[in-house]
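[Automated response] Your request has been received and processed.

Submitted sequence:
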Amino acid sequence: MNSTRKMIARVGALTLALAMVLALPIASAAGLAQKTITVSTGVDLVVDGVDVIPTDVNGKPVETFLYNGTTYVPIRAITQIFGKGISWDGTTGTVYIGEQPGAHQWLLDVCPPYQTDEYDAPTTVTMAGQKYPHCFSFRRSDNFALFNLNAAYNTLEFDLGHIDGEDMYTATLNIYLDGELSFSLDLDPEMLPTHYSVPLYGALQMKIEIVGVWLYNYALANVEVH
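Generated structure:
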């Protein structure tokens, strides 16, 4: 790729309605304003040696450009490159990249355990080389956590895997609803993190336990209820 073309292939006047983030009408967001500017267009975008053509939500190519010495790239292209979701709140005029506040009901936020035994809730854990938030684990065998669900939830979802660097013991995860075993899973230390969805049936109480492991080496992450 020609370096001159890579920086600026052509110069043209481009009228931009900066309020049109995500192609939504300006009337939907208070406080946004329009501004007409002249920019340099034709900037090529290359990520890790691969040409990237930014597109809008409908797949239509969107220009990148230079303005006052700064390169501007459509925000949707950036989120696609880094594997993040994107959403728009027209009421507040806010673009959310990744998690949107209030979009999830994390179990430990809305319903923390009222009784535990050798329970640990780190900020993140690393499983298969990736960091996972909203997690908890147990330090020894036959440890548990009790949650008062108060019949408010229908589904429990979580990612489950072996914590990197911990001992390679097998174990079993059990989930009890109102005293009855509802979900049981044999755990292998070589398993990759896997996502699970467990019906809660409007249960009042939930007990989660790990059995058959001497040191904490498995974790539940991204644990949410709905």
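Summary generated for your ticket: Residues 107-225 form a domain with the Jelly Rolls fold (CATH 2.60.120.1060). The longest strand covers residues 155-162.
If you did not submit this request, please reply to this message.
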